Amino acid sequence: MKKITITIDGASSTGKSTLAKRIAHHMGYTYIDSGAMYRALTLYAIRNQYIGEDYFNKEQLIKELPGISIDFDPNDSITLNGMLVEDEIRSMEVADHVSTIAKEPIFRKFLVAKQRELGLEGGVVMDGRDIGSVVFPDAEMKFYLVASAETRAVRRFRELRDKGERVSPKAVFQNLAKRDAIDSTRKDSPLIKPVDAIELNSENASEDHLLNIAIDHIQTRLH
Ligand code: DC
């Protein structure tokens, strides 16, 4: 059967990655976390002290772009210049700076090219903010996930706490609010719901229920 491209966009912690991974597993497709790519580039900038509390050496990061390789290993875990960085990219420090980097067209261009290369053959489920609108505007199946800001902040707080990171719920809520604002108002590829996307609300829906609805839509599209 033909392998299609499936996109899932939405704000932070709407449950995109859980749904995307489950669809990919169900379909035998590859899951690609585009947010992880922006996070890996941000981690590179933090490690090299190009971005911090009150500075951003954008020019130096641009100069070094050709030497930066961001990829996925066979387990779909993200690598930065060949090293696994899956845990490090999920820190609050990375979350604090990622939207600043993600709003710059030059960094988007760099990562979008890589995303298109990874999705060239179809058979992928990719999640992010601009996947159905910009990266794969011709994707056969597009979803857009929504949930309230409070629910999303609680989810993200629990995720960070379970990983042993000491953060306050307030700091997590503020980080999400700030990222939402930057991600949806930036000039280049802001977060929008593609016109042809199916909206799913993960607020009170179980993961199984969401998966079933998504699979029904995909099956209809495939036949
Ligand atoms: O999905 P996430 O929270 O891991 O994404 C981290 C950041 O990366 C998010 O705040 C905005 C940015 N991003 C983006 O601009 N475009 C994408 N396709 C994916 C993520």
Task: Please provide a written account of the structure.
- This protein has 9 helices and 10 strands.
- By secondary structure, it is an alpha/beta fold.
- The chain has one domain (5-221): P-loop containing nucleotide triphosphate hydrolases (Rossmann fold), CATH 3.40.50.300.
- The strands form 3 sheets. The chain has a 5-stranded parallel sheet with strand order 2-8-1-9-10. The protein has a 3-stranded antiparallel sheet with strand order 5-6-7, with helices on one face. A two-stranded antiparallel sheet has the order 3-4.
- It is globular, with a radius of gyration of 17 Å.
- The termini are close together.
- Residues 12, 34-35, 38-39, 98-99, 102, 128-131, 179, 183 line the site of 2'-deoxycytidine-5'-monophosphate.
Describe what is shown at a glance.
This protein is α/β, with parallel strands linked by helices and 223 residues long.
What is the fold's blueprint, element by element?
Elements: E1 5-10, H1 16-27, E2 30-33, H2 34-47, E3 51-52, E4 55-56, H3 58-64, E5 70-72, E6 78-80, E7 83-84, H4 92-102, H5 105-118, E8 124-128, H6 131-135, E9 141-146, H7 149-162, H8 169-185, E10 198-201, H9 207-222
Parallel strand pairs: 1-8, 1-9, 2-8, 9-10
Antiparallel strand pairs: 3-4, 5-6, 6-7
